[in-house]
Design goal:
alpha+beta
């Protein structure tokens, strides 16, 4: 009887190990389809990788291989002119679902979060110049009319599928003050894409720093089963003296990090 039980236990262990190995293989193959092998290995080691563009290095490297890949490249990086480029960066994060409260989160959950503009109010970012955490958006809400003189908050459109949705958002930014952004969404079963550009100019103190349409950013979130792949890319055109440009570059980079951290923290709410 004992021998029989041992045999059953051995068979059960072997089957469990086989299923576990098969699942690992499936996840690995899935990642390999989304990312080039070298990028995948870097991400698996660190869970976060960055690429800051320069005049001699302005080709995106981390865009996930999904049906939205061409849209990302064309929307954010399609009109890059190195001599006009103020700041451009792409970041790639790996968020394990075991590290968030909602272990069953999927593309729909990610979609609902990224459409909840009102919840961006109070978003925190780390200021590199002050070496401290500050509030990024003191106000954040969807607006019906982007050309209004007096903005009032409209309800978030975060129910159902986001595919094809286009909205405008009012953001009162710590650095750039009050501004309006145009945001569009695409969604399929496994991925969400959010594309964002400034509808109004961005001011840096008395300086009209970024003209309308010259800040373009996207977030692409891919559901990989046990984890999310979170891609965020930004391209901004502006001309400034080197001292101010460095401050603006730090500001834009901090915003990319802030958006990812905000997304991750929304699962705790």
């Amino acid at each position: 009887m004992i021998l029989f039980e041992r045999k059953i236990g051995a068979i059960f262990f072997a089957m469990t190990a086989f299923v576990f190995a098969k699942n690992l293989s499936a996840e690995s193959l899935e990642l390999q389809k989304i990312l080039p092998p070298q990028i995948e290995q870097m991400l698996l080691q660190t869970n976060e990788i960055s690429h800051i563009f320069s005049e001699n290095d302005f080709e995106p490297k981390f865009i996930p291989n999904t049906e939205f890949s061409d849209t990302i490249k064309n929307f954010v990086f399609g009109k890059i002119e190195p001599e006009k480029m103020g700041f451009a960066e792409e970041k790639l994060y790996r968020l394990k679902k075991s590290e968030i409260a909602n272990k069953n989160a999927d593309t729909h959950a990610a979609s609902k979060i990224m459409r909840s503009i009102s919840k961006m109010q109070g978003m925190q970012y780390f200021s590199r110049s002050r070496k401290s955490w500050d509030e990024l958006y003191s106000q954040a809400f969807r607006v019906e009319n982007p050309d209004s003189k007096n903005f009032s908050a409209a309800q978030d459109l975060n129910e159902g599928d986001a595919n094809g949705l286009e909205i405008f958002a009012f953001l009162n930014d710590h650095t750039f003050g009050e501004s309006v952004y145009k945001i569009s969404y695409s969604q399929n079963q496994n991925a969400l894409l959010m594309c964002m550009e400034n509808y109004s100019a961005l001011s840096y103190g008395p300086i009209n720093a970024v003209k309308p349409g010259n800040l373009r950013m996207c977030v692409c979130i891919v559901d990989c089963g046990d984890e999310f792949l979170f891609y965020i890319g930004n391209y901004t055109e502006f001309k400034m003296i080197s001292a101010l440009k460095k401050r603006l570059n730090n500001s834009f980079e901090a915003r990319l990090e802030a958006i990812y951290n905000w997304f991750k923290n929304q699962f705790e709410n």
